[in-house]
């Protein structure tokens, strides 16, 4: 039998002396403790006030009571997709904000007007449905604080407007192709730049094809399958393609319903009628996602057709220019979450969908990639983007070529030694001069902060919407411009929103 | 003591009584004369109550007249013993008391001269206590030396233009050799490229800021303000020195900051920018002080101690 | 409701989780199975094509899972017991088999050896 107490602690046992009434704290303190642990250094707690020490006032039962487990009725989880819809919800109007009186809508006339720099151009109400269809608006862009959506006209916007106007209307710019990668720091307005391009393209009745979120294609949230028996290492994503078709059809219904097919499409399961509209063609793919990819290819050949096949001349109308907008490019430059049959990760460049859009950056063979003209705008993202070294190098190379530094030059950017760059990524952005004169080479457009004048226009828009109670003076705008890191428009919007008087809900 | 008043002579007497071994003769004489003394103080008391400070050399009105001074040259009058040169010879610190009495006399004589503010008076490096003890060769108590320093400060505050020559000379005795305040740091200037440099510290961050005339660009460690400080509050505090003086669009800032967290870094930049701004525009000092960007916040995290859970926190008390 | 290897799964369930409900299939095996038939990990049972269901069923029926696997485990333990090894004795006593300390903190070790390995 082991003694239950430590012999060295005997000194601190309560003594049977005639003073057992002493509080134990005193005895413990007086006797020199053998153990020097830190709890012994601590101060004894303060005595409670005498009122609190007294027991219960009345005689109460002291029986043990079992706590009954509370029966909580389980709340049914929200239906499938509801929380996602709430998260992705986009509110475009705030009825409490004031209507800005002389705000112009974007139109064919004012999109080339450089006098409007720094002013806010509203998006026409009928166009909002089209823009929603192509998912041009993103949540948390601050659309919900103003009466109606509008965008700041900045230098790049006017330049883009002139470009779109030229490609549509000017004979010397006809069928010109501009290929651009839009980069810039966070909140600088890359996505809104794409939105402005789309709104201008819609006013000019172009066909707009967009990939609003590159990440959706590589997260392994949609189905995939090997492309065909012939090339099993390439994969199609039928649902994603069907979604793309549905976006395209909803946004461009007015244009596509006027155009008719111009040739046979043997890849499709069932032969098409002669007078099938392109809208009906796309709807085949939407209704049957298994055939979405061949349908998309058929639609693309139709849209890029310059002349009808023999026998189809009757209904042929010339195809409009196209705007291809892709947002969040970096996600396409790495391995996806999809797996091959051997459980290896699939590279994003092995997805047919991604391959198609990346191949547009290269010069087309014999004819340009968009023979009817158009603009390719591929934006990177700074808030949701994996860091990919190869992409950084590739973009530096694009910028270098733009500045006439060619691969033969020693200044041409090279990946550092042992960095193991992804050769496929580097190759994707190598684009030589096209043999077609109207097809431009790939360029890099780095957006910077807006100027002080544009910032002033933006802040005045806040004031005229009733969101700002300050006097918008030159000095005040300059101060906000500096605080926003040199006119980063997303930060300016946050600052303007911060100054609002909080609304009591 | 019934006759205690702030009179230097009485204090000296007091110290004599305390320090010297009781001399029966002196003691007796004092006691024997005490009724007269007390009567004299009663007469002079109302005058003291008026609030006017009196000094040792001032004549106190007495009801008796002193005997004429002895002329020791007269061979008939020969003292029975040697008479000390200083009246405070028998006190504990005779030399110190001599100096004190001398200074009090000078102060009383020049009490009416106009004075200047403390900050305007020339800065003097008075002897430190050990140095003063060496100087007089006595163990002067700290408190008494502090009293002496007070008189010296008061004398030093006399308007420099009207300072009598003998006062200046007397004061000089108590000044340390050499002039420790002569080594002033060279005033910072704007360099040939128009940059002003300032350094600042806060918490464990330290910042260097370069200020050039410009149009409101701010770079922190080569990054823009937004990239360096995602929080708006930090951005505002980093630029506060320029903002509070409405110079934000007149200068460009290029800052390097290291150590600490975001708050510390932002406030270190505030201080650095304020100091650099003072180089460009020294006249802004009052405005900047009012904005609170001149004052250095010297607080640092207190270290953890053994036996404590944190810097001060003790472990909880456990019974047994 | 979709039948996979004779078990009925509701359509809203994830395919991956449904596969893992079989004894002998965990995260490793199920994700490999999905990759083999090109099914994305977020796929629900209802979204499976007929061919894919047949493929999965065929693949599962080739594998040693459920009762076959349980029987194998029981046989192994039985063999250890019969040969009178130390491990067999530990199994019989319901104590940890692999040399864990049994002085303290033994609850989990005992718990893992107490699971009835009966045929389901």
Automatic annotation (TrEMBL), chain A:
Domain of life: Eukaryota
The protein's name in its UniProt record: Uncharacterized protein
Protein species of origin: Aspergillus brunneoviolaceus CBS 621.78
Automatic annotation (TrEMBL), chain B:
Keywords noted in UniProt: Ribonucleoprotein, Ribosomal protein
CC annotations in GO: mitochondrial small ribosomal subunit
InterPro entries for the chain: Ribosomal_Su5_D2-typ_SF, Ribosomal_uS9, Ribosomal_uS9_bac/plastid, Ribosomal_uS9_CS, Ribsml_uS5_D2-typ_fold_subgr
Keyword Signal: no
Region (Disordered) location: 37-70, 176-199
Gene3D superfamilies: 3.30.230.10
Any one GO molecular-function label of the UniProt entry: structural constituent of ribosome
PROSITE patterns named among the record's database cross-references: RIBOSOMAL_S9 (PS00360)
Gene Ontology BP term (one): translation
Keyword Ribosomal protein: yes
NCBIfam families: PRK00132.1
Family affiliation: Belongs to the universal ribosomal protein uS9 family.
Protein name, entry field: Small ribosomal subunit protein uS9m
UniProtKB/TrEMBL annotation, chain C:
GO molecular function, one term: structural constituent of ribosome
One GO cellular component, as annotated: mitochondrion
Record's keyword terms, sorted: Ribonucleoprotein, Ribosomal protein
Keyword Ribosomal protein: yes
One Pfam family hit: Ribosomal_S13
GO biological process entries: translation
Family the UniProt entry places it in: Belongs to the universal ribosomal protein uS13 family.
Protein name according to UniProt: 40S ribosomal protein S13
